[in-house]
Design goal:
The structure is a single chain. It contains 15 helices and 10 strands. It has 351 residues and is an alpha/beta fold. It has 2 domains: 222 residues, 3-Layer(aba) Sandwich (Rossmann fold), CATH 3.40.50; 98 residues, Rossmann fold (3-Layer(aba) Sandwich), CATH 3.40.50.1100. The strands form 2 sheets. A 6-stranded mixed beta sheet has the order 1-2-10-7-8-9, sandwiched between helices. Helix 5 links the parallel strand 4 and strand 5. Helix 3 packs parallel to helix 4 and helix 12 crosses helix 13. 54% of the residues are buried. Ligand F0G binds next to helix 4, helix 9 and helix 13. The site of ligand F0G has 22 residues, from helix 4, helix 9 and helix 13.
């Protein structure tokens, strides 16, 4: 949006900074809240999409990273470290570059989407591909930060989640109320925790009269919150949420319980269906993990748990260009077309 100053400057009273801190910002946030006519028709609800792929590095992580990096810089850190399934590392790398800090990212080897890896490369991060999953990476990053002079910028760093609350505030500011239901993909569970804190703060201050029910959706192969116990070997096509032991477990359970919401597991097949539907019918290209919120919307609408007539927001957490491999996976090699209108017409079956 024209003139949008970034989340720290947009919500100065709600995002406290250390004294004399100079915000590290790429003017993140202020993302589009787009009505979804096709999904609204399918569900009998008023569905809006919060398009977080429109953030500077293409995911919602920038909302927290601006705050985490501002603190790290103000507190004199020389470098930052994070574990990531890809988006946190892309965001940390970009904001560290902006701040002039060294950045190390620990990612599960072979399990991060190409776009995210290319971002970390271009922003000059030290990329360590770990022979383990995200949960191993997070444990390792936390240990390293505890023992060496390097700042952890995962969402276990509480200021990250303060920044991520801003998405809930933007939605309320724009709708003039809170939605009835909010659908989110859940991996490490920081974001659902942050949204609920954001809505709760607005409710507590009387900015909104009601808070939404929080619907959290996990991939079926990585659904510890649905199962009620950690998953040792999480697996899903939605690599962003391939997390077996979420750091913000308690925050997510609080969000569900206080909001009278739910957790539900979604198969990879249903995630991919929603992924294609969003691109083909709503014109919004997201990465697979992001489509989990919409797959969950459709599942809970079909089984009656989502009341018709509800105002619903689905957060689309990351841009489709993050993961070109999944988009092109089932596309066959195409024959080249000669430079002839008749050949174009024949290929399009116009004639
Ligand atoms: N969607 C996307 C695109 C993500 O990258 C993530 C998390 C989530 C949803 C889930 O959010 O973890 O707060 O529950 N990605 C982290 C990362 C794990 O390392 O980039 P969450």
């Amino acid at each position: 949006r024209h003139g949008w100053p970034g989340v720290i400057a947009a919500y100065p009273d709600r995002i406290p900074l250390p004294d004399n801190a100079k915000p590290v910002t790429l003017h993140e946030g202020g993302t589009p809240l787009v009505p979804a006519p096709h999904l609204s028709e399918l569900t009998g609800c008023e569905v809006h999409l919060k398009v977080e792929g429109a953030n500077p590095t293409g995911s919602f992580k920038d909302r927290g990273m601006t705050v985490a990096m501002t603190y790290a810089l103000a507190q004199g850190a020389r470098g930052v470290i994070c574990a990531s399934t890809g988006n946190t590392s892309a965001s940390a790398a970009a904001y560290a570059a902006r701040a002039g800090l060294e950045c190390a990212v620990l990612v599960p080897r072979g399990k991060i989407a190409l776009g995210k890896l290319s971002q970390a490369v271009m922003h000059g991060a030290h990329i360590l591909q770990i022979d383990g999953n995200f949960d191993d990476c997070l444990e390792l990053a936390a240990k390293t930060a505890a023992e060496y002079p390097i700042e952890l910028v995962n969402s276990v760093n509480p200021v990250r989640l303060i920044g991520q609350r801003s998405a809930a505030w933007e939605i309320c500011d724009e709708l003039g109320r809170a939605p009835d239901v909010h659908c989110l993909p859940v991996g490490n569970a920081g974001n659902i925790t942050a949204y609920w804190q954001g809505y709760s703060a607005y409710f507590g201050d009387g900015v909104i009269d009601t808070a939404p029910r929080m619907f959290g959706f996990q991939a079926a192969g990585a659904a510890p919150l649905v199962l009620g116990e950690p998953v040792a070997e999480p697996e899903t096509i939605a690599t962003a949420i391939r997390v077996g032991s979420p750091a913000s477990w308690t925050g997510a359970v609080t969000a569900r319980d206080e909001s009278k919401g739910l957790f539900e597991a979604i198969t990879d097949e249903k995630i991919l269906e929603a992924y294609r539907l969003l691109a083909a019918r709503e014109g919004v290209f997201v990465e697979p993990a992001s489509a989990t919120s919409v797959a969950g919307l459709l599942a809970t609408s079909a089984d009656g748990r989502l009341p018709r007539g509800s105002t619903v927001v689905c957060t689309l957490t990351g841009h489709g260009l993050k993961d070109p491999d999944t988009a092109l996976r089932d596309v066959a090699e195409v024959e080249p077309v000669p430079v002839l209108a008749s050949a174009v017409a024949a290929a399009l079956e116009l004639a």
